[in-house]
Specification:
With about 325 residues, this protein is of the alpha/beta class. Helices cover about 40% and strands about 20% of the residues. The chain has a domain of about 210 residues: NAD(P)-binding Rossmann-like Domain (Rossmann fold, 3-Layer(aba) Sandwich). The structure holds nicotinamide-adenine-dinucleotide (NAD) and uridine-5'-diphosphate-4-deoxy-4-fluoro-alpha-D-galactose. Nicotinamide-adenine-dinucleotide binds next to helix 1, helix 5 and strand 5.
Length: about 325
């Protein structure tokens, strides 16, 4: 049985990846410092999968801890998600991002190199494209991140590329996620933001649940079909399955392979609200306000490369994303607390 180290495995996306790993015959070992997650998420993963996870509370900046984990658990490959992800915070505290995301990744790669484990799947983001000039966005599009968070992702991508060109034994899959949303169908795990959410879907969920008063729609004067921003929302379970496909491809891949993980379909803010109203069965108060600084009009993926090379394609549509997000919200009004 293959043993996979999942850094950041108790977080939103990591917990869903752990479920898919366990239910597909892998063993999951998680290292997470719980800076943005709850230990309860791992217990819920174990409930869903009816299998246990080896959980180690620790920081990826702790290289000697990582070395010990890689050796003690005889790890076969790493899925690397640990990092900070708030764009606004990255602008006000850039060093936190270069430390956690870039130095943290360097520490992990150093530990892997030291024990001779050279297979990794890395969580990157569509944010590395910045404001794409053409949609759908292919992996070959220009990379132009516009904030420290996005640059931290790009730097790690480049670090991985340098490593792979220095040593043929490295097998790397870089996954550029579009907009992960939704929750596991069981309603047991989902996104649990510590503060007021910045992202659309968790904000809509909280308004629908009456925990926030009303949603602000950031601008309706973009050159999109209804004037509101268009994004490629992808169900987190589809996203998690993309990691299994990437893991399975690692031994046959060539050095570094980069894949967009998106559905290929963009939805506007108003379309998301309408679908969420359907899922929740009642109205969601909202009003249009000014554009959010730094936002772009439109961004959706060309996911063709992942389909051709990994045999992976997103299966779940916007209705399932909203229904599952709503089930998670309704069943867990206080998140994991
Ligand atoms: P999350 O915050 O829920 O998960 C990240 C996890 O990493 C958390 O559990 C946190 O405690 C842990 N962590 C952070 N710094 C750490 C450190 N130094 N050592 C050990 N653990 C640490 O976020 P998520 O949404 O699950 O995102 C997972 C990954 O996917 C991140 O790398 C993120 O940048 C990337 N990503 C997320 C999105 C998104 O919209 N959610 C989009 C694109 C890419
Ligand atoms: N939006 C609102 N109101 C809100 C929140 C968002 O109208 O309260 C709008 C935004 O203006 C945008 C759309 O909803 O048009 C989606 O916004 P999100 O904040 O959910 O997502 P973004 O595409 O702006 O950013 C997300 C992550 C980034 C990541 C990027 C690309 O937050 O970290 O996707 O993967 F880099």
């Amino acid at each position: 049985m293959q043993r996979i180290l999942v850094t950041g495995g108790s977080g939103y996306i990591g917990s869903h990846i752990c479920v898919e790993l366990l239910t597909s015959g892998f063993q999951a070992v998680v290292v997470d410092n719980l800076s943005n997650s709850n230990r309860e998420a791992i217990r819920r993963v174990e409930t869903i999968a009816e299998q246990s996870v080896d959980f180690i509370q620790g920081d990826i900046l702790d290289e000697s801890l990582l070395r010990r984990v890689l050796e003690d658990y005889n790890i076969d490959a790493v899925v690397h998600l640990a990092g900070l992800k708030a764009v606004g915070e990255s602008v006000s505290h850039p060093l936190r991002y270069y430390d956690n995301n870039v130095a943290g990744s360097r520490s992990l790669l150093q530990a892997m190199d030291a024990v001779g484990l050279k297979k990794i799947v890395f969580s990157s983001s569509a944010t590395v494209y910045g404001n794409p000039s053409i949609n759908p966005v292919a992996e070959s599009a220009a990379l132009n991140p516009t904030n420290p968070y996005g640059r931290s992702k790009l730097f790690v991508e480049e670090m991985l590329a340098d490593l792979a060109s220095s040593d043929d034994d490295w097998h790397v899959a870089v996954l550029r996620y579009f907009n992960p949303v939704g929750a596991h169908h069981s309603g047991l795990i989902g996104e649990d933001p510590l503060d007021t959410p910045n992202n659309l879907m968790p904000y809509v969920s909280k308004v629908a649940a009456g925990k926030l008063e009303r949603l602000s729609v950031f601008g309706d004067d973009y050159s999109t079909r209804d004037g509101t921003g268009v994004r490629d929302y992808i169900h987190v379970v589809d996203l998690a399955k993309g990691h299994l496909a990437a893991l399975n491809s690692l031994s046959t891949g060539t050095g570094v392979d980069v894949y967009n993980l998106g559905t290929g379909t963009g939805y506007s803010v108003l379309e998301v609200i309408r679908e969420f109203v359907e899922a929740a069965g009642h109205d969601i108060p909202y009003g249009v306000v000014a554009r959010r600084p730094g936002d772009i009009a439109e961004c959706y993926a060309d996911p063709g490369k992942a389909e051709r090379e990994l045999g992976w394609r997103a299966q779940l549509g916007l209705a399932a994303m909203c229904e599952d997000a709503w089930r998670w919200q309704r069943n867990n009004p206080e998140g994991f607390q």
